[in-house]
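Assess this one:
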Amino acid sequence: MVPGVRVFFTEVRATCADAAARLGLDGPDERASDRPLAVAAYTGSGVTYEVVLGLWDGHVEIHACRETESTLCKVSVERLTVAAGVVDRRGRVSFGARSLRQMRKSLAGQVRYVELVHPLVAGDADAAVELMRGADAREWSKPTVR
């Protein structure tokens, strides 16, 4: 059985606290939604990291999100580490969250990936977005103001 939303937020705070402090990230901004997922977000240096728990599938994943004037990019930190060359291949971190033990292991591994890529995505926004595109980021154009 997938741990509940309260347990998820407690584990995210415990697992991410040290890294968030070292990287100068604010958060977590915690929200449950009407969809079967919960999100905790940490923000700083122009980057937002969303820690997402899928309540139905028992899956936890951290996404890096970066905005420019015209676009919003979002990509898994695992894909980002591979595209940046700091990890040689995918599959070296877990995503399972069907138990508290699995969730803790998955969060710890993915937080380590955040620490590896943060210097690369926290700098120049355009360079960060190019790296994210290289990692097959999802990208949305911002509406233009008239």
